[in-house]
Amino acid sequence: MSSMAPTSVSQRLVWLQSPGVLILALVLGVLFGIFAPHRMLALDVLADVYLNLLQILVVPLILCSIILNIQGMFKERTYTRTSLRAMSGLFLMALLPALLGMVVAQLLNPGAGITTENLWRIEKVLGGQNIDQVSRINLFSDAMDTQASAIDGLINAFLPNNIFLALAQGDEIKIAVFAIMFGFAVSVINSRLKDDFNQSLEAVISACFKISHLCSFALPLVIFIVASQICSQVGSDALVVMAHFLITFLTVTFLLCLISFVILKFRSDASGFGVLSSLLPTLRISLASGEHSSVCIPQMIDTLSARLGFSQEKVAFLVPLATVFVRSAPIMYFAVATVFVAQIYGHPITHTEWLLILGLSVAQGFASVGLQGANKLALLAVICNPLGLPTEAIILLLLAIEPICAFLSGLTMTMSQCAYVAIISNKPVRL
C-alpha cells in the first residue's frame, strides 16, 4: 500500500513538516517548559488527543497489513525462508541492545557518583506524591520465582487466549500473532471470498494512511508540547543526580541509532544523505510519539519502500511486525538500569549474573509492552531481585528522568525497526 497522494491543501501546508519549523517548535517548547511550566495543563490535553488519534490507527494497520501481505508470501512459497530470516533478525535485534547497554554501562560506570548515603535526595527530586505512587506497586518479593515469572510473562505476552479482549486492550503482540495465524488460514480459502475480503483490508489500510497523513500537519504543535512537557516535568535536581545515567543512556542510544543507520545505508546502497533524508518523515513522527513507534507504520512503509527502494510487499508485511516485536529501547533501558543499580550498591556482577541480566532484560523488554512510567519501571525489580539488589529508591530516581528517556527511546525504536526490516528484505535493485 502506498501513501495517499497529497491534495492541494496538503501541498499548501507542507511547510509545516519542514525541518526548520520542527526545530523552531522544539526550541520554543523547551523555553516554554522552563519559564512557564504551570501553563502546560491545556496543552497536555492537545498532545493526548493527537497521540490517541494516531494510536487508534495502530490496531487496524497491524491486523490488516499482516493478514493481507502474509498471503503473498504464502503464495510465493517463501514463508519458510522469510520466517527463518525474520526470527534470526529478531534474535539479533533483541541481543544487540542488551549487550550494548551492559557494555557501555560497565565502561562509563554511571552509578559511581550515587551512593546509598545520598539517596535521601530522592524525596527532594520527586516529592511525596510520586513516592506514594511507586510504594503502592509490589516491587520486591522474597517469594517471587523470577525464572518462572519471566517465562509466564513471555507466554502471556505472546499467546492470545481471547482475541477480542486483545483487540479491546490494544495488545499489539497478541494481535500480531493472531494476524499471522489468520493470514495463513485466509491463504487457503476460496479465491473469490478471499479477493473480496482482501479488498476490504486494502480499503481499511488506505483510510488509515490518509488519516495519518492529515495528522502529520499537527507535528509542530505536538513537538512543541512534548518538549514543554519534558522541561516542565524534569527538574534541575533530577538532572544533577542522574546526569551520569543520562549520559550513558544517550551514548547507548546514539550507538544503536548509528548501527541502524549503517545497516540501512549498506542494505539500501543509498548515500548517507539519501538515507537520512528518507528517514526524516518517520523520525518526525517518532519525536512526538515516544515509545509508541507503531504510530509510525505508514511513514516507515513509505520510507523503506518508496524512498529506499525495498520491496513494497515485503516491507508492508515486515514493518507492522517490526513495530510489535523489535523492542530495542526497553531492552536497552533495562540492561543499562540493572548495571546502574548494581554499581550504586557496589555489587560486583559475576559471569553468571551477566547472562541473567541479558536474558531477563530481553524478557522484560517484551513484558513492558503498553506500560509506562512507574508501571514499566516496576519490571526492573524482576531483574534485580535475583541479584539481591533493592530497587524501590532507584526507581524513584529513574522515574524523575523518565520523560527524557522516553523521548530518546522513540528515536531508538524507530531506527532499529527500520534496520530490522532492511536486514530481512532483499536489497533493492538499482537500475
User: Stretches where pLDDT falls below 50 for ≥5 residues?
Assistant: 1-6, 126-148
Q: Which structural class do the helices and strands define?
A: mainly alpha
What is the CATH domain class? Answer: Mainly Alpha
Helix content: over 70%
Number of beta-strand segments: 0
Mean pLDDT: 79
CATH fourth-tier homologous superfamily? Sodium:dicarboxylate symporter
SS summary, helix count: 23
Spatial gap, N to C terminus: 23 Å
Which shape, going by the Cα principal axes? globular
Oligomer state equals: single chain
Please provide the ordered H/E string of secondary-structure elements. Answer: HHHHHHHHHHHHHHHHHHHHHHH
> Any guess at the CATH architecture?
Orthogonal Bundle
Strand-residue proportion:
under 5%
CATH third-level topology: Proton glutamate symport protein
> Biggest sheet, in brief?
none
The domain tally reads: 1
Supply Rg: 22 Å
Describe this structure in words.
By secondary structure, this protein is mainly alpha-helical. The chain has 23 helices and no strands. It has one domain (8-424): Proton glutamate symport protein (Orthogonal Bundle). The chain is globular and about 70 Å long. Mean pLDDT is 79; it is low at 1-6 and 126-148.
